[in-house]
């Protein structure tokens, strides 16, 4: 599986890869976390493009700095309120971390 993350303080990205790629050492049954900065972003994106056919299922996780606004008005229920709160804050804030996990039918 592979993951791509951007930590809170800066433009660093990381992704872990569960398979060998020409630019990596072999890792048996272990994920690999790689540091990605502005200077090697294109190279790391190429790695993801190379493995996406082998790992066609992708899970994504994002992190935002917090809640700065709460929606007002009538909502159909708690889940609608929570969705509108999330949507409002996502629209207003910049993402601080992105996680990608790539996997196939074998895991």
Automatic annotation (TrEMBL):
Record bears the keyword Amino-acid biosynthesis: no
SUPFAM superfamilies, per the entry: Ribonuclease H-like (SSF53098)
Keyword Lipid metabolism: no
UniProt enzyme class: hydrolase
EC number: 3.1.13.4
Homology family: Belongs to the CAF1 family.
Record-given protein name: poly(A)-specific ribonuclease
Organism lineage: Eukaryota, Metazoa, Ecdysozoa, Arthropoda, Hexapoda
